[in-house]
Amino acid sequence: MSVPIDDHIIVRGHAVFDTASLCAGRLYRLQIHLRRLIDSAAKARLKLPFGPDTNANIERMTQIICATCLASGQKGANVRYWLTAGPGNLGVTPSGCVPSFYVLVFAALPFDKSWSMSGIREATVPESEPCISRALVFKQRRRHRKSDVRLGVCNSTERALERECRILHPCFWCG
User: Fold this and answer.
1) In this predicted structure, what is the pLDDT of residue 19?
2) 101 - beta bridge partners?
3) Ordered strands of the 26-27 beta sheet
């Protein structure tokens, strides 16, 4: 598989993808995966590659995915596919781009047989304030000191996170 350098999956990251499982030569729930891909494409404002009709696109994508799986010769694998704004320009908008669909079949990830008997441990982390997901905000002031580094947070852990941030990320105006 090759992807053109001017495809917006490379230029702007403008793409959606999904992964299906190929088990014993059969694709597991492919139609559900493709519906989810089409829904994601609509939310990402991606045009469909095989015309405006959703069902026609799903049918054509199914044909391409099945043909790629057959050509791979694998009976158990992961099948990843991408829908992109496509090649056409190096600009910010996808105007003039031709939507593209890429498929890759690759060996399934290793699977420990004990998982099917004992399961895989899971940990649930309680949802907290949005402070962890917010980006660092750097403000330039008259005097540039390491204390100028600020986090865009709004809860009680702000000061502790600022101290940690100062250690890891000194003010980039001072070096």
Assistant:
1) 94
2) 83
3) 26-27, 15-23, 77-84, 100-107
Helix (H, G, I), strand (E, B) or coil at 86: coil
Whether the Cβ atoms of residue 19 and residue 79 lie closer than 8 Å to each other: yes
Report how far residue 97's alpha carbon sits from residue 84's, in angstroms, rounded to the nearest whole number.
10
47/98 Cα distance (integer angstroms) = 9
In the structure encoding, which two tokens stand for residue 52, read together?
């405006």
Please name which of 132, 130, 128, 148 lies closest in space to residue 140, comparing C-alpha atoms.
Answer: 148
| Tokens, residue 38 | 């089409």
Q: How far apart are CA 86 and CA 46, in angstroms?
A: 9
List, in sequence order, every beta strand (DSSP E) within 100-163: 100-107, 136-138, 149-151
Phi, psi torsion values for 72, nearest 5 degrees? -70, -25
Q: What angle do helix axes 54-72 and 30-43 make, rounded to 10 degrees?
A: 130
Closest CA to 38 of 98, 101, 87, 92: 101
pLDDT tens-digit map of 50-101 = 999 999 999 999 999 999 999 999 998 999 999 999 998 888 888 899 999 9
> Which strand (E) or helix (H) includes residue 12?
none
Is 66 within 8 Å of 81 (Cβ atoms)?
no
